[in-house]
Specification:
The complex is a heterodimer of chains A (401) and B (392). Chain A has helices at 16-24, 26-30, 37-44, 52-67, 70-76, 78-81, 87-91, 98-111, 115-132, 161-164, 178-192, 223-237, 244-252, 267-279, 287-302, 320-323, 335-354, 393-400; strands at residues 143-148, 168-170, 173-174, 199-203, 215-218, 306-310, 314-315, 333-334, 363-368, 374-377, 385-387, 391-392. Chain A has 401 residues and is of the alpha/beta class. Chain A folds into 2 domains: 3-132, no CATH class; 143-222 and 281-318 and 332-400, Alkaline Phosphatase, subunit A (3-Layer(aba) Sandwich), CATH 3.40.720.10. Chain B is built from 13 helices and 10 strands. In chain B, strands 1, 2, 3, 4, 5, 6, 7, 8, 9 and 10 form a 10-stranded mixed β-sheet that branches. Chain B is globular, with a radius of gyration of 19 Å. The chains are: A alpha/beta (401), B alpha/beta (392).
Amino acid sequence: MLPRDLKPEQFSGYPPEARKLVTNYLGALQRLPLSFLPSLLREAIEYDFKFPAERRTLERELANLGSLSAEQTADWFQGFAQIRLSPGLERFDWVNAPGQFVEQLSSYLWTTHQLDAFRIAATNYADRLRAAVPPEPPPVPRLVITVVGQGVGAFEEPLFRKLRAHGAYFSNVKPENGLEVLLNLVAARAKAHPAPYAHWYIDGGQEANCDAALTCVSYQRLEPARAALLGKMRAEIERPGMGPEALRTHLAQLRPADLGFGKDGDAVLDRFQVKLLTEGSGTQIFSTTFAQWAAREALRRAQPLTLLVRFAPRQRQKPMNELLAASQERAELDPVGSLIDGDMGAYYNWLNLQRLTGAAQASFLAWFEEHNKAVALSPSTPRGTASASATSMRELLAWVS
Amino acid sequence: MAVMKRSSPQELGRQLAWSRREFLRTGAAMALGGTLLPSGIAMAGRGALAGIPSKKKKVVVITFGGGARDQETFAPEGQENIPHLMRELIPQSTFFTQVVNRGILGHYVATASLATGVYETINNFASLPPEHPTVFEYFRKDLKRPSSDAWVVAPSNGFNRIGESNNRAYGPGLGASVILPKHLLTAAMSGRTTDYEHLLRDNYESPLFAPDLGGNEFQLQQLEMMLKLSVDDFKAHALTLSSPDELSVYIARQLMRQLAPSLLWITMHDIDIAHAGAYSLYIEGIRRTDRLCAEVWKAIQSEPEYAGNTTLFILPDFGRDSDDDSGGNGFQHHRTGDALSRTTWMMALGPGIREGVVYDRAMESTDLVPTLGGLLGFSASLAQGKPIAELL
């Protein structure tokens, strides 16, 4: 089937709000090339479980598509229209399984050497959309804080090397009550600028005190879900003929109830957490990977005003089959390796912050927990500078926020 | 970042090559080759392995897998991770800064493409042979070499079909013997692998999956017969090693000592732990691979069958995603197909190869097989790549 054949009843399997959204724009969707449309439907089918920022982005994109004439649509999508698809892809049920279609499309593009053409088409479309529908600026400057190195006694090698060039490095921060000060600050921001899913605290281990005004996600809190997931993964891997692609497809179909989430929870957040575990590579086994990926996805999807990410020690590397076994024994930890993971994770958090609107006004802080090293990046922070003066966490925060 | 987004893939490839050249000039005191010295190719002298009798010529290929980026290797901040390449190997090598892989960026299919000189399109995760003749088949058929003269050592069980294609004119019986050290160790331990777990990691594209075996892998009984290595000695030595790639190099050295194959292909894979997202483990993998490459070169110098008549090639199958591409997650994967993940490098060392020279013209990873044909004297008739003139 091709997009021009779309009919409203074909979306009967969509959740109610998603169905209403796409049927409102059916005419626009019918004009889109098949190499593009399922990627859009992959987002639309999740509309009921998306964060407010994502919903607005999707609504604005669809409104823009709806405003284009047939000629304009052809012009916008000429790169996608030149992608050749197989009859098998055309026959695929891409309306009801757009995510699986996109996986197969990706494989097909690699195999037929069309990936570069697709990348160019996608980049051009994103640029054009951004120009036509500029993303909304945040109501207040964003603040992202990354805390690394929990459990590390001494570490003499340089930290935050990738971040220092963009801000000020502090080598004499007073660490007393540092985490508490940071948590109080993010809670205060949440209360001062209340909005759903706008203020986050992500912990790669056992979360500290989490204010009710914050959206909290932690590796420890998800332990029952991770154990359930690892059990399902082991069972799938042992099935004959199972490979990474089939496993990924299977995982993508899991829903919160499959991993033990209750019916009374936050459906949007539960779905987000399940995706962290089922779509993130390594998030099931390494807490540092979980923290980095959760922060990336929170920034990309929820576009928060405030985000505090705290890395915790991950388990040591072991063979994959053992890591997947989720033994009841206490895992041996690798604090120093986790500090290095977190250092890179802090850099990635800053990069992902730069991809959001208002990046020029945003502030960023990374701190070596319980130690005296930190780096601060903000519009008022001189780049590439260093300070050895004794600085309290409050002073540091006053400088960046 | 903005500049990177606006550049074409070709331009980005050139920028990467230029950066690598500058890094090497400052970090390893390399001279410039062909692009800045028009007479560079003519100055290359007699060519690799020239003057060595055909039967004596040997080639060892190491794939620096599964892919590392410049930030963690050749860039100034990354050079601390590759001290052996920088100080020992690169100064002795001819270095190519812009080797582009235009194929599928999955480790098995990309390694198969390197070995066939054709961008293979086989399923990366299936236990399938390459569709085009491998370098091992060209070598053995054209030069009438026995099976003991071409070997592949691969750490991942997913590489067990890499030795020979299903091409009708070549194929079964003409390929390389494939040895999978981890599989061998598991067999040697009869399933009791508690003390050897660190050597049995398999991270074949995904931290979630270890592929099943199929094909004609090296059998345990051959351990003693061909490698002159008792199961007990093998197990005892394995205990002193720290990773699958270390186990691979140990087996490769054993092969060099006992069988001295003329064509030896070693696929490194420790670096691919990056897929699990732990940066420190990725860096550990790079440092280990750097050390192991130097160990193989030392072994070549010290083994009488190899010293003075062997060319060593080191090249990644491809790179990893750029930090700047929002579609990826930086070092973790190689899924975006961006210029950084496609543009890699190659070094060649050995008799007749100019030392300390850098070439930054664009070439393709499929050029390796025809080049090996030029060095060893076989015709890679179905390969798509072109021989590298600077080495011949």
